[in-house]
C-alpha cells in the first residue's frame, strides 16, 4: 500500500485557492502511484472556529477528485447534523464507493473548540486493502483509550493541525499509540503558518507496530509517500502472535 501524506498549507481566507492546491496534490499522488492520499484536519481552511468557511459541498469536492484520479482519500471537514457542527474526518474509496465518517471525540478546550463544535461519541473502523483502519483527529491522539476502542485496529490515521512547538509530544504520542496497539499509525499534519502566526512545521510521520519510524519512499514539495509492504504487514501479525499484549 502506498500512502501519500499531503504537505498542505490551507489558504485561510481563500477556500477556492485551497481547492486548487488540493487538486494539484491529488494529481501528483496519482502520478506517483499512490493508493491513498491523506489531507490534514479541516483541510480547506485549517483549524478554525470560523464555521461559515465550511459547507456540505466539501464532501462532493473530495469525492469527485478521488473518482477522477482513481485513488482513495482521507480529508478533514466540518459537517452539520441537526443542530450540531462536528470536526470531521472522512475516508472515501472510489473503487468500492465505501465511505467512513468520524466525528472528533476530544475537543481542544485550550482553543475553545468545545464552544463551537459538538463532540463525537463513537469510534469508526473500516476495511481498506484488507486492513482494519480507523480515523482520529489531532487532540484525540493524547487519549490512548480512543485507539483501544477500535478493537484489533491495524492502521490508524490521525489528521491534525498540531503546532511545531509541541513537536516532541506529537512524535512521542504517535510512537506510543503504534507500540501499545501493535499497529501502524499515520499522522498527517498541516504545514505552514496560520493567520494567528502559529507555525506547524513539517511533522507528518508514520510509525510501525514496533514503534519504528518509516522513511518516505518519495518526497516532493507537495507530498510524502510511504509504502507499507505486505511483508511489513505479515511481521505485524507475527509480532501480535508472539507478543500478545492486546489479549491481556
From TrEMBL:
<dbReference type="GO" id="GO:0050152">
    <property type="term" value="F:omega-amidase activity"/>
</dbReference>
<dbReference type="InterPro" id="IPR036526">
    <property type="entry name" value="C-N_Hydrolase_sf"/>
</dbReference>
<dbReference type="GO" id="GO:0106008">
    <property type="term" value="F:2-oxoglutaramate amidase activity"/>
</dbReference>
<protein>
    <recommendedName>
        <fullName>CN hydrolase domain-containing protein</fullName>
    </recommendedName>
</protein>
<dbReference type="InterPro" id="IPR003010">
    <property type="entry name" value="C-N_Hydrolase"/>
</dbReference>
<dbReference type="InterPro" id="IPR052737">
    <property type="entry name" value="Omega-amidase_YafV"/>
</dbReference>
<dbReference type="Pfam" id="PF00795">
    <property type="entry name" value="CN_hydrolase"/>
</dbReference>
<feature type="domain" description="CN hydrolase">
    <location>
        <begin position="1"/>
        <end position="230"/>
    </location>
</feature>
Amino acid at each position: 500500500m502506498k500512502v501519500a501524506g499531503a504537505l498542505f498549507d490551507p489558504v485561510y481566507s481563500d477556500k477556492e485557492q485551497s481547492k486548487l492546491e488540493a487538486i494539484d496534490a491529488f494529481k501528483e499522488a496519482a502520478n506517483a502511484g499512490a493508493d491513498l492520499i491523506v489531507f490534514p484536519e479541516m483541510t480547506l481552511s485549517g483549524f478554525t472556529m470560523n464555521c461559515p468557511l465550511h459547507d456540505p459541498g466539501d464532501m462532493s469536492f473530495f469525492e469527485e477528485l478521488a473518482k477522477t484520479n482513481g485513488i482513495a482519500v482521507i480529508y478533514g471537514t466540518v459537517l452539520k447534523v441537526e443542530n450540531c457542527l462536528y470536526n470531521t474526518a472522512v475516508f472515501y474509496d472510489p473503487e468500492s464507493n465505501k465511505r467512513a465518517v468520524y466525528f472528533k471525540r476530544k475537543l481542544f478546550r485550550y482553543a475553545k473548540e468545545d464552544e463551537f463544535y459538538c463532540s463525537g461519541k463513537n469510534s469508526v473502523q473500516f476495511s481498506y486493502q484488507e486492513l482494519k483502519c480507523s480515523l482520529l483527529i489531532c487532540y484525540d491522539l493524547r487519549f490512548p483509550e480512543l485507539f483501544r476502542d477500535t478493537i484489533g485496529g491495524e492502521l490508524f490515521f490521525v489528521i491534525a493541525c498540531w503546532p511545531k512547538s509541541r513537536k516532541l509530544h506529537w512524535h512521542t504520542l504517535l510512537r506510543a499509540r503504534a507500540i501499545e496497539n501493535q499497529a501502524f499509525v499515520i499522522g498527517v499534519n498541516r504545514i505552514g503558518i496560520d493567520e494567528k502566526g502559529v507555525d506547524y512545521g513539517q511533522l507528518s510521520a508514520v510509525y510501525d507496530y514496533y514503534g519504528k519510524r518509516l522513511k518516505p519512499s518519495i518526497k516532493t514539495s507537495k507530498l510524502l509517500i510511504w509504502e507499507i509492504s505486505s511483508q511489513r504487514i505479515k511481521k505485524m501479525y507475527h509480532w501480535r502472535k508472539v507478543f500478545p499484549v492486546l489479549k491481556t
